[in-house]
Amino acid sequence: MGNEAIKNLGAQAQAGTAIRCREVKKYFEAVKAVDGVDLEVKLGECFGLLGPNGAGKTTLVEVMEGLTRQDRGTVEVLGYQWGSGDDRAFRERIAVQLQETQLADKLTVYETLKLFRSFYRRGRSVEEIIARAGLEEKQKERVYKLSGGTKQRLALACALVSEPEILFLDEPTTGLDPQARNHVWQIVDEFKAQGGTIMLTTHYMEEAARLCDRVAIMDHGKILALGGPAELVERIVGHEVIEFSAAEGFDRNLLEHLPGVKGVSGKNGGYLLRVASAKETLPLLLATLEKGEARLNRVSSRPATLEDVFMTLTGAALHD
Amino acid sequence: MISKKIRHPLVEMTVARLKETIREPEAMFWIFVFPILFAIGLGIAFRDRPPEKLPVAIDQRMSDAAKVSQMIAAGSNLKPVLISPAQAGQNLRTGKIALVVSHDPKIISAKNNAADALKANGLGPDFFLIFDPTRPESQLARLAVSDALQAGAGRKDSISLQDEKVTEPGSRYIDYLIPGLVGMNLMGSGMWGVGFAIVFARTRKLLKRYAATPMRRSHYLLAFMFSRLMFLVWEVGMVVACGWIFFNVKVYGSILDLILISIIGSMTFAGMGLLVASRATTIEAASGWMNFIMLPMYLLSGGFFSYTRFPAFLIPFIRALPLTALNDAMRAVINEGLPLFHSWLEILVLIAWALVSFTVALKIFRWQ
Ligand SMILES: Nc1ncnc2c1ncn2[C@@H]1O[C@H](COP(=O)(O)OP(=O)(O)O)[C@@H](O)[C@H]1O
Ligand SMILES: [Mg+2]
C-alpha cells in the first residue's frame, strides 16, 4: 500500500506531502471555527491537532476530508483539491472516522463491515479486518449491544476496510477507559507501521505525545505552535516545571530573574516556573523565598508536558 | 444467512436496509399488524346488517295511540314506540327515534303558533308528524309512516308493486374500503418508513459517515426505495387477503396488475418520504412535514369516502394527488376488474410524483 501511495504521488509536484492547508478559514456566522490555518503533513507522518473543545479541530479536519467547504484558503490532500475532479473516486484513497458517529444499531459487526467494504473497489477482506481490529468474538453482535470501546474499534475498522493512504481520526479515544484506549492505539500503531499517514485530533496530551510525530496546538481556530511533542515542550516550556504555593510577601520579578527560569505564571498564590533544570533552580528559589520571608506551603517539580505548552501559550488549562 | 461474498454496493445497502427494518419491532407492527387490525375494526363497524326497523314514537296521551301503533307496525320497516312528551323531545334530538306522531304540534317545542291556531279552529290535520328533515332516516320514516297510516285508514293502491332484494359483494362499504386501505397503507409505511430512517441516520451523523466513503449517493437513496418493495408483498397481500377471507372482498382484476400498481405506488411514496426527509435535521420537524402532507390526502383522496363529495372545482386538484391516483387505480383493479391501461392517467400521475420527488431529493439532500 505504501508503495502505491508513493507511486501515485511521484507524479505530483508536492512529492512527500500528504496534506497541505493554506490560510484556511471557516466561519459559522460569528464563530471563527477555523481562522487562517497553514500546515503541511508529510507522507507517512502521524500528525496531531491538540486543543480544547471548540478549538476548531473537527471543523478543520472535516474541511480536509471534503465534508465541509472552507470559506477561504486552499486544501490539498494527496495533491487533490476537493471539488476539482471526481471527489467520489478520490475517497477510495482516504479513510475517515468521525467524532461521535453512531453506526446502524440493528446491524451486526460483520454486516456493518461488509456494507462499508462494498463501497470500495479494493481493500481487505472483512475477515481480515475483523481479525486486525480484534473483533472476532463480537462479529455476530449487533452494534447497539457493543461497549463504547468496541464501538470505537468497529468505527476504526470501518475506516480501514479499504487500505487507505491517509487515515483521519477525530478524537478516537474520547470517553474510553485506559484499556480500550490502548486497544485503539495499537490499531493506529499498526497502520502507522505500514507507512500510512494519519491526521488525528485529540484533547488528550498523552495521546498526542504517544502517537504523533508532530502536533499542532490549536485554540480559537488558530494554530498556536507546531512541532514534535518533545521539541514543543522543550522550546515553549522548558525541560521541567516547578509548582509551588506561597503566601504573598515577595517580589514576583525576582522569580523571573532567577537563573534557568524561562517563565513564570501564577495566580492566587499558586505559581508555576518553567525551568531548564529543577535541580539547579530549586535551591535558588527556596533561598529567594526565604529572603522575602514568604511562607512556603507546598513545592514540587516534574517534567514539562504538552499541557504546560498549552497553558503557557494561552494562559488557560487544556481541561478545566 | 451471512453471505461472504461482497456484492454490489446497491445490493449490500438494500439488504442492510431490509435487515434494519425487520429488526425494528415497532416498524414491523406498523407495517404488518396495524393494517390488519384496522381492516378488521372497520369491517366490524361497517358490516352488512339486515336493514334495521326505523323507530317511530307515538304520543302515548292520544286516545287512539294503540290503534295508530298497530297501523304503523303493519307498515314496512317501522317500529312503533309509545312515548311521553318529555321523552319524545329528548329521543328525537339524540336520534333514538326518527319521527313522532301526535295530535299535539307542541309536543316537542312550545312555540308553534300557526299550527296551534288551525287546531283551535278545528281545521287542523288528523296527525302531526314531527321530525328533522335534515336526517335521512327521518325522511324515510316520514314516507313509510305516511304510507302506513294511509293504508291503515283504507287507502287503496292504484298500481301493484313487488320488491326483489339483491345484495351483492362488490357494492358494499367494505368493498370500497379495502382498496383505499391498501393505498393508505402504502402511503403511510412508505413515507414514515423511509423518512424516519433517514432523519434518524442524519441525527446520528451516519449519513455524514456514508458521505465520507466512495458510496454513490444515489445508491443510498435507491436502496430505500428497493427495500420498500420487499415489504410490499406483505403490506398489500395481508390487507387484500384479510378482505378476501373475512369480508369476501374479491379482486376482480388481474393480480399482476395489482402488483404493478402497488410497486408504482410504493416507489412514489418512498420518493416522497425521501423528499420530506431530505433536509430535516430533527425527527420532530420531519413528523410535522409528514403529517402536513399526509393528513390532507387521508381526507381528500377517497380513502374512506368518495372525493366526488367535494366541490367540482376541487376535483382536478384532488385527482392530481398521488394517493388519489393510487386509490383510484387500486379500485379499478380490485373492485371493477378493469385492465391496467384503463388507469394510465393515474399511473402517469404516480410516476411523475415519484420522479420529481426522487430527483429533487437527490439534489437538495443534506448529508450532515
Ligand atoms: N455547523 C456548525 N454551525 C455553527 N457553529 C459550529 C458548527 N460546527 C462547529 N461550530 C462551532 O465552531 C467552533 C469549533 O467547533 P469544532 O470544530 O467542533 O471544535 P472542536 O472539534 O475543536 O471541539 C465551536 O465554537 C462550534 O460551536
Ligand atoms: Mg471536535
Helical fraction of chain A equals 25-40%
Give the mean pLDDT of chain A: 88
As an assembly, this protein is heterodimer
Q: List cofactors, ions and other ligands.
A: adenosine-5'-diphosphate, magnesium ion
Class computed from helices, strands and strand pairing of chain A: alpha/beta
How big is the Rg of chain A? 23 Å
Helix-strand makeup class of chain B: mainly alpha
Strand content of chain B: 5-15%
Strand content of chain A: 25-35%
Evaluate the radius of gyration of chain B: 29 Å
Query: Whole-number average pLDDT of chain B?
Result: 87
Count of β-strands of chain A = 13
Identify the overall geometry of chain A. Answer: elongated
Q: What this model shows, in words?
A:
The complex is a heterodimer of chains A (320) and B (368). Chain A is of the alpha/beta class and 320 residues long. Chain A contains twelve helices and 13 strands. In chain A, the strands form three sheets. A six-stranded mixed β-sheet of chain A has the order 5-6-7-3-8-9, with helices on both faces. Chain A has a four-stranded antiparallel β-sheet with strand order 11-12-10-13, with helices on one face. In chain A, a hairpin with a 2-residue loop joins strand 11 (261-267) and strand 12 (270-275). The relative contact order of chain A is 0.13. With 368 residues, chain B is mainly alpha-helical. Chain B folds into two domains: 54-169, abc type-2 transporter like fold, CATH 3.40.1710; 173-364, no CATH class. Helices cover 62% and strands 5% of the residues of chain B. Chain B is built from 14 helices and four strands. Chain B has helices spanning 9-22, 25-45, 65-74, 85-93, 113-120, 136-152, 173-203, 206-211, 217-247, 255-277, 283-300, 315-320, 322-334, 344-364; strands spanning 54-59, 78-83, 99-102, 128-130. Chain B has a four-stranded mixed β-sheet. The longest helix of chain B is centred in the middle third of the chain and has 31 residues, at 173-203. The A-B interface holds A 65-68, 88-89, 91-92, 96, 98, 100-104, 106-107, 110-111, 114-121, 126-127, 142, 158 and B 2, 4, 6-9, 11-13, 16, 19-20, 23-24, 201, 204-206, 208-216, 367-368. Bound molecules: adenosine-5'-diphosphate (ADP) and magnesium ion. Adenosine-5'-diphosphate binds at residues 28, 31, 33, 51, 53-59 of chain A. Adenosine-5'-diphosphate (ADP) binds at residues 28, 31, 33, 51, 53-59 of chain A.
